[in-house]
Amino acid sequence: MTMRSEVAIVGVGRTPYSRAKPGEPAPTVDEYIAWAADLALKQAGLSKKEFDGQGLGVAHAEVAHTVNWSAATAENLGISPQVLLRADQGGASASAMLIRAAAMIKAGIVDRVLVVGADTPLNIPSAAPGLPLSPERTRGVYWDFQGPFGVMGASAQFALVLTRYLHQFPSLRFEQLGKLAVSTRYNASFHPGAIYRKPFTLDEYMDSRMLSHPIRLLDCVPIVNGGLAYVVTSAETARTLTDKPVFLRGFGEANNYYHGSRALPDVTTTGYAQSAPRAMAMGGVRHADIDLFQPYDDYPFIAMMTLEDWGFCKKGEGGRFIEERDLRFHGDFPLSTDGGQLSGGQPGGAIGGFMPLVESVTQLRGEAGERQVKNARIAASCGFGGIPYGRPGRSCISLILGTEP
Question: Which InterPro entries does the record cross-reference, listed alphabetically (predicted)?
């Protein structure tokens, strides 16, 4: 099946992020959603009234647990959509809803969909602010196999994956991962919305304290409060709204992917090995055609494995690929051009997945300001969600976006 360039994104919104501590005044999840939606609608030149009888997509927020939350979001926004889309695929949610919205539009059920997401993980009044409240933390394999041994949170879980990677591919050097982190912070220094903008050096990366060996402090994504949104319409409608539509040219999705044996999967390969080739084939692009790459980059080595599984280099050669290229926005391989989540901030695990998509659209519209990639026409954007036991990711979605159909 193909839906190449039958839909386009016509507006995006990203609120300012906050590092507010529990007890400090901060917008609620609903307020962040309304804020982000307003920004996206204004860029699209649409009013919320134009979404009555259309579509609304809502990404699950791990903090804001309420009954019938998607319908409540429609109520809070003051719209009456015909279709409610919902995604609970963690950092793959924004990408998943773009695919679902495209299918709805192609089927003629709706013409446009407003997709929103926000979270306020720092508002949790607990001993560990920001600790996600996802099911893995309360039941199932997490407490069977990880919690009893002190594997608390993403850093500890991903440390196990990186340890295995280092065992299989001992040529990887931490300086190579550090270069990615340093480049990401450099890009963030040109983005007013990034939560951390002060550049750091490779030596500072190497000297940062170890949190969960081999994960360092400067390997870790900073948790923030915030909201993001985008508007997707039929390609026909998009051309009437803007002279800068960003078309969905190709996509691929892999959920619950196992590489090799299900009993003993290879955790160094993600579902991108399956979803990326599909996205590129549908989009009619080769690796050399991609002008910027926006991974889900909560940790540098996740971005590195993503590069490998997209086929930019062979498995085990991601470190050398990083070492040999300039990852800054003006370099020969622009990556995480907004600072990514590593320096930009992660507004909850699920909502951080909006960032690669929003930045890709911003770059392709030529609206990235000082960090603009020259002549950007094709972007690769990634969604990555969930940390299952014994595998590196539960949902891996690959998108190809372009300025032309």
Answer: Thiolase (IPR002155), Thiolase-like (IPR016039), Thiolase_C_2 (IPR055140)
- Going from the C-alpha of 360 to that of each of 217, 227, 323, the distances in angstroms are 27, 17, 24
Residue-wise pLDDT tens digits, 130-188: 444 454 455 566 667 777 777 777 898 899 999 999 999 999 999 999 999 999 999 99
Tell the residue number behind the tokens 């279709």, with chain if given. Answer: 83
Domains assigned to the chain: 7-125+225-232 (3.40.47.10)
Whether 186 and 223 have beta carbons less than 8 Å apart is answered as no
* CB distance 103 to 85 below 8 Å: no
Cα–Cα distance for residue pair 194/122, rounded to 1 Å: 17
Residue 93 has which token pair? 């949610």
Q: Residue 242 to residues 42, 175, 181, 346, 364: CA-CA distances in angstroms?
A: 12, 44, 35, 29, 13
User: pTM for the whole thing?
Assistant: 0.95
